[in-house]
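Hi there,

I know you've been waiting on this one. I reran it after we fixed the sequence typo, so this is the corrected version. Both the input and the resulting structure follow.
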Amino acid sequence: MTAADRSAASIADLLVEGAARLAPLGVAARLEAEVLLAHALDRPRSHLAAWPERVPDAREQGHYRALLAARADGTPVAYLTGRREFWSLELALTPRTLIPRPETERLVELALERLPADARGRVADLGTGSGAIALALASERPGLEFLAIDRDPEAVCVARANAARHGLRNIVFAVADWCAPLPSGAFLALVCNPPYIAPTDPHLERGDLRFEPRAALVAADDGLADLRAVIADARRCLVPGGHLLLEHGYTQAGAVGALLAAAGYRAIGGATDHAGQPRVAFATAP
């Protein structure tokens, strides 16, 4: 394609170009090309279908091709656009926050089952990142008060901005390490998606994980160190009969269940995600 051809490329042409550029990644190339072009044009994806013959200007085309190049190098789409949808909420992201994933919505579902719509009290989200879990729960349970905690101040800033964007006023945020600032016997539930990948896991060198913050992914002790820390202290913070819900790796269900039992929790159980993989452990405080 000559420079003249490139500058005269229509939306339809650019999508063909983008899908071809991304096809070697083994991803949904056409969909990702649409997402990136819509972002470069600052238009919804529906605009692309409505105006396929439109020729974007040189700045827009340059932005789009820069996004394609970064994606072809492996940068996740969510970091290129700075946003990702979770629980029907569009969230802003930065490379200091994990990319919310569909399997984590299972944690939200299980928490909502344990928090009736008329419940009143406090719930904490430990390691909130972009705020995905806390915002999803707060949007569904406006009568509850939520505390969202993360040890990374930048992540807390992102989460706070996401809450403000969606008008969620029943969440407060804190920079802290797991349960450290929580008062004893004060919470109906604690939810947590901690780092749980072992440092030697080969998946860390594949796909989106290569670009995500290691501190939010990796834990010592074969990925169990942070899970162990949360389990050890969470019981102190829960009301009697309060709920602890933890996301974990698909091979860790047995180990997490054993940690919960050793710490004296009751009604210990687990659930699979929507792909059928063991993903969430839950228990109640005595």
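Quick highlight: Residues 254 and 270 are 9 Å apart (CA to CA).

Best,
R. S.
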